[in-house]
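Cross-check.
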Amino acid sequence: MQFSGVLDATTLKRTQSCNQRLVDPARLKAVNDTGLMDAGRQAAFDRLAQLAAKILDAPLTIVSLVGADKQYFVADYGLPSPFKESRELPIDSSICRYTLEGESIISSNALGDPLLKFHPSTGPWGIVALIVIPLINIDGHVLGTFCAIDSKEREWSEYEIGVMQELTLSVMTEINLRDQLLKLKAEQNLREMFVAALTHDLRTPLSVSKLSAQLLALKFAGQEEAQSILSRLDRNLTHVDRMIQDLLDASHIKSGKLIAVQMMECDPRQIAEDVIDELTAIHSGRFELETINIRITADPAGLRRIIENLAANAIKYGNPDVPVRISLVKHEDRVELKVENKGDPISEEDQRTIFEPFHRATSAIQSTRKGWGLGLSLVRGIARAHGGDVAVYSSADTTCFTVTLPLNPALN
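Predicted model, tokenized:
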């Protein structure tokens, strides 16, 4: 940087300290991590620049990032050509670089300022009065500045300086929010990669185990005791496979994706009866089924998972002395599956979040019953993949989950 005159000792020390900060790797990484360098004009920041110009009645306001070799204009009001098009200024022409120690530049008359009067950009830019507030992140790095510039001499009031400071905080809030979104997206991608790798690695030995069990069943055909053991082994391996699929589907739901379904004509009554027959073998006499003869277009495996999860939850958390009631009701363009149980209610607060992945109601957490908090999120995920949804109603002694599915998903 070539100044047009000799700087006093204090100003010289400031420029030297800021020059060291300019090339600090940690600061430059923080600037790059914003994702705003060379990203074009940003509407959110433009609105703040326009607001500052309006409140201060300033002809020029700029939100900038300060890199190692250039100052980049993220947003502006009144920026002249050619900078309005190029969006950048060589670092040797930057005034904002001298805020990198975290100190603002506030001047009513640049010609009387010990730094600005010798700066090479003061004259060409027509800078007379200016406020330059540094953008400081949570780690203390100065990323850039928010500045207001006037071409005539003026005394900045405390109110005007306060407005610029508050708007600068708003700029940093927006930057921090964007940073959090980027981190969440990176975390989401990492989680999806982890779950995909985990499920793949688990399913390979699981498939081998199931195949081995089936071969042993053929080898020991006719031996009742061996067949009983191998049948239990096969059922448990199938259960593990379903748990892996639940984890994979929960990851899809968490990332905002739909669960894959294979639609075909099926009989929901038969599917409900099959599920209840299996659960009755463990929980005898706990179910009442009210169904109708109807065929719908749906994913049979998905519909089965919906009924299994809702029925198992009703058994787990319902009153053991009162049967769980499962019913199917047809409407003009949809079918409703209801699973109702008596027992402790679900609080209104928990009802708002109970379908989120890995969420468990407070009463469930406080109970001795274990769970992952995946079942209800999968019910909603499968229902929405069909073009339907699920809702819960819970009163003092009754809880009812209602799954609504379209009779013809193609029309949805």
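The chain is about 45% helix and 20% strand. The chain has a mean pLDDT of 87. Passed to J.P. for a second look.
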